[in-house]
Design brief:
Layout (H helix, E strand, L loop, with lengths): L1 E6 L2 H15 L1 H23 L5 H42 L3 E6 L3 E5 L4 E5 L5 E5 L2 E6 L2 E7 L5 H14 L1 E2 L3
Parallel strand pairs: 5-8
Antiparallel strand pairs: 1-2, 2-3, 3-4, 5-6, 6-7
Helix pairs in contact: 1-3, 2-3
């Protein structure tokens, strides 16, 4: 059994959740890039006045511009709400002096903190990954758990990776 007990670290908590937000919303950023490229392309077509009817491109351009602007506002709102909630949670954990315990055994992964005790069989996870010095457990391609390399000593971190390799397949996120 590999057991790690760490006190709450606000900066690491925020760093891990920023990474989680970025990784889980990568598709949204790619979609936004496509919208911007299409909008700019239509604006160029309108500017050079080419094509069957300039009014069609004008109407399509205005609609696409509105949709793109709406998508940008949506991403900003989601990001603002997420980080506002993150700050609230981090302040709560800091006030309550949260202590996290992670246990990795041959049969399961366990998580304990001041409020909860959760036991997971390895079968509950779909994959694992490593990104920016974070060990990540995935459930149905969603990030479920993240452990930074600094929260464990180097030997423990390598043991966790080796144990997880024997239980789950690697997936790049």
């Amino acid at each position: 059994m590999i057991s790690i007990t760490v006190p709450f670290d606000k900066s690491l908590f925020i760093k891990s959740n920023k990474l989680k937000f970025r990784l889980e919303n990568m598709k949204s950023y790619i979609k936004l890039l496509i919208y911007i490229i299409l909008t700019v392309g239509l604006m160029i077509l309108i500017a050079i006045n080419k094509g069957p009817t300039p009014s069609f491109y004008g109407i399509a351009g205005v609609i696409l511009f509105i949709l793109t602007f709406n998508y940008i506002l949506r991403i900003i709102n989601i990001r603002t709400f997420y980080f506002k909630e993150l700050d609230t949670i981090s302040e709560k954990h800091k006030k309550q002096n949260f202590i996290y315990t992670f246990e990795f055994t041959d049969d399961e992964f366990n998580y304990f903190d001041n409020e909860k005790k959760i036991y997971f069989k390895w079968e509950a996870f779909s994959n694992y990954s490593i990104n920016n010095d974070f060990f990540i457990l995935l459930v149905n391609n969603k990030i479920f758990f993240m452990l930074h390399q600094s929260e464990a000593n180097e030997q423990q971190f390598q043991e966790i990776i080796e144990l997880t390799k024997s239980k789950l397949s690697f997936k790049k996120v």
